[in-house]
Design brief:
The protein contains 22 helices and 15 strands. The chain has 495 residues and is an alpha/beta fold. The protein has a six-stranded mixed beta sheet, sandwiched between helices. A five-stranded parallel beta sheet has the order 8-5-6-7-15, with helices on both faces. Bound molecules: pyridoxal-5'-phosphate.
Length: 495
């Protein structure tokens, strides 16, 4: 298996792709071809547990890893780290409506599915490409990624991890999750400013030649844990293949029968993993891309024009408050028939004008594969309330956006095919919005009171990792200006 870039023709192995994270000219790494899952292999996989399914899928993409390496990575990532033996249970909430619960990991959001595995993949890959070197993971986060990366990388040998988050841009629960993180190789700091300030600061540091020299002298190298790294995509492909196996195994569909997939989308990473599963032969019919009020993707799928020049809305589904969906670049590459030159041109336009329009033939293919829809906070709140009232199922704000858009799709098209809906966070991670949806009268004045109240009102259990937070010591109290980020990093790495 060889990988290329979306903006230039290359031929690299997976270990190189995972350690580099992003291609030098700014393109993203993509597989040159997709391995096919034969019917025979699928029927064997239906009889496997999640870890065996993961090893099977990984071995098809990471052909430069040995079977023993893949074994060690997968066992390390998914043994004892998730609430139950199945990290990604598929719950049939209503006929044909299957919620793929991806939030039973240590930080209660779907990022764990990939970020529990990435440290193993990255250290195994780095041992091949740069033996002895320490990888320094730099993260700017709007909430969920930061904690999931900290949890995954804490105390992993030959790694350091540094996370920056906007001081007032994350939920109280998310903030506490990060500031209480233990581990000898972790550093966390708030920054004055918003997520974009944190992100820009991190990008500048990645590109800073002096900083690179400083790291090289210590036999260190920057790497990225955000969703542009192929090492984060491949674990996500696994759960769509696994969902298909579970649909077959439980008799909800027959082998080969098609189903739809709905994903609450921000950076386009999660839904792209479903596309990749489809390219491998998983019979997915329609990919339903669900957005909140930041509906740049809905407009793109409907018109073929991607335009980020629009107001940014802060919503109750903050992990989808994104106007530049980085992983869409990979989709453009595949839709264009692997045309790196065309993709490079579109990305240049996005940078200079904030928008681009794809050619008609690409738009036709896009619309054949995808349906795009969105809903606002009020509609998501009504969906949480209705799902709980009618089905006694409690979902979070991001999942609610997906359920709402799925229902719009069914109303509009009459397509009742079974659907797998990605459920991306525990409702307790967004307790305030979820509580006010199911119990508008509830009076609770702080995050933990709301969590307790939500449990009382709904009779559901508080996930242990969130319940325990109350008693944990705050270890990271620093807050720096964007210009001070580099100094913070140097100080930490000199320790
Ligand atoms: C990150 C995240 C999303 C968006 O996923 P993308 O891969 O960025 O599209 C949706 N829901 C939750 C809870 C998330 O943390």
């Amino acid at each position: 298996m060889q990988f290329t870039s979306t903006r230039r023709n290359l031929s690299l192995e997976s270990a190189q792709v995972i350690t580099k994270g992003i291609s030098e000219e700014g393109g993203l790494f993509v597989p040159q071809t997709f391995p096919r899952l034969s019917d025979e292999l699928i029927s064997r996989m239906a009889g496997m547990d999640y870890k065996e399914r993961a090893k099977t899928v990984l071995s098809l993409f990471l052909t430069d890893f040995t079977a023993a390496e893949i074994e060690r990575c997968v066992e390390g990532a998914y043994t004892g780290t998730f609430e139950n033996d199945d990290p990604a249970p598929l719950v049939e909430v209503a006929p044909g409506m299957n919620l793929l619960e991806l939030w039973h990991g240590p930080t209660c959001a779907f990022k764990d599915m990939a970020l529990q595995l990435l440290p193993y993949l990255l250290t195994t890959a780095a041992a091949k490409t740069a033996p002895g070197r320490t990888m320094v993971i730099l993260v700017a986060t709007s909430g969920d990624t930061g904690k999931a990366a900290l949890d995954g990388f804490a105390d992993v040998d030959k790694t350091r991890i540094i996370v920056f988050y906007p001081q007032d841009g994350v939920s109280p629960m998310q903030k506490l999750q990060m500031t209480t993180q233990t581990g000898g190789n972790v550093a966390v700091s708030a920054i004055y400013g918003n997520f974009d300030d944190a992100q820009t600061g991190v990008k500048n540091i990645f590109a800073d030649a002096d900083m690179k020299k400083f790291l090289a002298a210590k036999n260190m190298e920057f790497s990225s844990a955000n969703s542009i790294n192929f090492g984060r995509l491949v674990p996500q492909i696994v759960y769509y293949v696994s969902a298909y196996c579970d649909l077959i195994k439980t008799g909800r569909i027959k082998a080969g029968e098609t189903f739809n997939v709905t994903v609450p989308t921000g950076n386009f990473g999660n839904i792209l993993a479903a596309v990749y599963a489809k390219y491998m032969g998983v019979p997915i019919a329609k990919l339903i891309c669900a957005s909140n009020r930041n509906n740049v993707l809905t407009d793109f799928i409907r018109t073929g024009t991607y335009d980020r020049n629009r107001p940014f809305h802060t919503t109750t589904s903050p992990s989808m408050d994104i106007l530049i969906s980085s992983n869409l670049e990979r989709m453009l590459y595949h839709l264009s028939g692997n045309n790196a030159e065309l993709v490079a041109g579109l990305m240049k336009q996005l940078k200079s004008e904030g928008k681009y329009t794809i050619p008609a033939d690409m738009l036709a293919k896009l619309q054949q594969e995808f349906y795009g829809g969105f809903c606002d906070d009020q509609a998501a709140s009504a969906t949480i309330a209705e799902l709980f009232r009618k089905r006694h199922y409690l979902c979070d704000t991001h999942t609610a956006v997906a359920v709402n858009v799925y229902e719009q799709y069914v109303r509009e098209t009459g397509d009742w095919k079974p659907c797998v809906i990605a459920s991306t966070a525990s409702p307790y991670k967004f307790a305030k919005a979820v509580l006010s949806a199911v119990e508008p009268e509830a009076a609770a004045d702080n995050e933990f009171a709301m969590v307790d109240e939500l449990s009382k009102v709904t009779g559901t259990k508080i996930p242990a990792p969130l319940a325990n937070l109350k008693d944990r010591a705050v270890l990271h109290k620093s807050c720096v200006k964007q210009a001070e980020m580099a100094g913070f990093i140097r100080a930490f790495l000199s320790r």
